[in-house]
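Annotators were shown the component list below and the corresponding predicted structure, then asked to write short factual statements about the assembly.
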Amino acid sequence: MGKLQSKIPDGPLEDKWNNHKNSVRLVSPANKNNLDIIVVGTGLSGASAASTLGELGYNVKSFCFQDSPRRAHSVAAQGGINAAKNYKNDGDSVFRLFKDIIKGGDYRAREAYVYRAAQVSNQSIDQLVAAGVPFAREYSGYLDNRSFGGVQVSRTFYASGQTGQQCLLGAYSGLTRQIARGRVKMYARREMLELVVVEGKARGIITRNLVTGEMERHSAHAVVLATGGYGTIYYLSTLAVGSNASAAWAAHRKGAFFANPSFVQIHPTSIPQLNDFQAKLTLMSESLRNDGRIWVPKKKGDKRHPVNIKEEERDYYLERRYPAFGNLVPRDVASRAAKERCDAGYGVGDTGLSVYLDFSHAIEKHGKEAIKSKYENLFEMYEKITGNSPYKEPMRIYPAGHYTMGGLWVDYNLMTTIPGLFAIGESNFSDHGANRLGAGSLMQCAGDGYFILPVTIGDYLADEIKTARISKDIPEFEQAEKAAKEKLQSLMAINGKQTVNSFHRRLGRIMWDMCGMVRNEKGLKKALKMISDLKEEFLKDVRIPGAINEINQELERAVRVADFFDLGQLMVHDALSREESCGAHFREESQTAEGEAKRIDSRYSYVALWEYQGEGNKHSLHKEELVFENVEVQERSYK
Amino acid sequence: MEFKLKIWRQKNARSQGAFVEYFISGVSKEMSFLEMLDYLNKTLIESGDNPVAFEHDCREGICGSCSLYINGRPHGPDDLIATCELRMTKFKSGDTIIVEPWRAKSFPVLRDLIVDRYAFDKIMQAGGFISVNSGAAPEANSIPVSREVADEAFDAAICIGCGACVAACKNSSAMLFVAAKVSQLALLPQGKPEAEKRARAMVAKMDELGFGSCSNTGACEAECPKGISLAHIARLNREFLLAVFKT
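Structure shown to annotators:
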């Protein structure tokens, strides 16, 4: 357990980050120029980290699998970014933001991390505004805020329904500036396949050039993973279809512990699946729940058109079950409640797997124009996809896999259990506990990338100033390259009959049914067997056309799906071992009489860390106890 | 539904490409255009052929990856959408659908329908930013921006960098792409100090990379999935002329 030093600084909660900043070692400007840093991923956290490290004078190499860093999946975040500016004078503060995140995460995140995330949130807004992000303004010219996602203050900054795009492009523009200055070298269309560890320290990566297929070696004094989440394991999710876990998994196989892998957020308001070939699910922003009311018919299997179902025949089940928060309950609660109604036979649509999100009351009350001004782009998007107008009839929605709270374990310096390997943004586990609040992910990404990592990485690199540039002609690089090559060759050699997607779809179904919104022991055990059978079938019968040394999108997919089998197994093990319900993790065996999640703090108030023990061997479980000194641990109630 | 597809196939940047015909049946009207191509690829792979390579990622019209020229229009026969938002309801069963990559000298074809748009990143590197270091920013509300200006900047900032404007232009000009960024940053007080320099540098880079001059036909605006207005080109011209007169 020596590896598990979280390095949380001493002192009162509100002083920890400042104390830490004052005590971490610094690297002088002259020495920074001799230190190389690899940053994998160019989303909001990766792009902001790479550009900031470049500004500081380090030699940065930035990698993304897309054709341009501007396309990373942060681009799709819709609703907003939280900060504790208290511009609305509604009683918000750093402490209150901290407390909301801890409570929203169902007391499964560490206090010191979350407090720091709340502390730097204000600086992130300053930075993004200065970079030219056109956040929404009031007529006065000052920044507007809205209320978002299960909290009682308005602290969310937004740019229409495209906040993620605007924040990402702000960070991307900073990155391009450093590329132009020569401080960052950009490697687009590269996929990281292996992490290179030399004498216990992360020293480089092996990438595949996705255009030529060549294997490439890249060395550095430290490696930063900003590779996002793994929600695409469900196949159908709100994520970009290229999002994947392979870089994080490669790090995990080399010794980085994976924390709380089963903590996955299912977003309650996505457009339901419409056809069997569907590649992804489209999110409808949570902000719609500010004006939309969710309901199903009171009568089972009622197939009447929704506008013909009278008011008294409708069950507004969120308002009924949670009178205090109503339609604004957090995502996990809203998702489970929708599933509960559909499983009980009250779901609507052809498949019975959707519920109504109704704007007719809001239109009646505020007028069509007012609703249009808030949601026009979302209503249009919905109509384009489904052919129905939300102005005339309710939307149909259903939950979809969205965000992974689990990820690589990191200490207070955002360093994993491999010295010199850092993880930021969604790829780490740090801030959101068992459930993330809306507009919290951009907040964490910007904080990690702009303000936290650039400070903490210095503490590690201060010991590396005498380390010469890392040679790529050493056995460790050779072995890692060989392993990557062999992996690709063995996949190509299978030459079976079924497509990669067909396997991914089946894996996704297993994960969704048995390790999705609701889990139980029987289902999870069944899933373990099904995943291992499916992996075996994959390794015998997958068909990857083409060759390694060319653009080969099927090969790219195959590598990602191969890793998903193993990650899926780990998620199931994690879900099995946590015999409580908390946040997004709902174990049927652990619920209250009213069907709400029942946390068991006496046994499960810990972060579950999984250590890789070699191909085919069982992972070992480590536990990091969670200590709450500044908030009272309560039952998380929205009633 | 069933379709005859004529799709541009090209092994790599060095080889010659050609149209190849495919017949596809069993397409459902609920499919998106890219899901129809996924379906085609499934049948190609299962019958031992190479699937059609095309770029895509978010599949909700925001990442800008998808870039297909369908029946003579960038992003196909619908307005204000990226290719991934195009639905099969826009076609009639029995139609012939012609699918090509973006055609522009500055966007070389890498394989089938995938082109290299690195030139856009190069233009951005020439000046598409505000030179503010992390930590140097003033308090956010110390820079008031009127709502009208903020909204106008936003309307330019929503460019997804897909390249449809270049593909639509007979001169393969990148004026709308450049104008959107120049205009967004010139409108905001934060971006004003560098506005002229930015306009000059980005236009020079655009020329250097082989993009043509503005055709003044408005084809770019008509095909832009985000409806970015030609008015931004007018603003770019103003910024650019100001910059040129001062040098």
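Statements collected:
1. The radius of gyration of chain B is 20 Å.
2. The CA atoms of residues 47 and 178 of chain B lie 44 Å apart.
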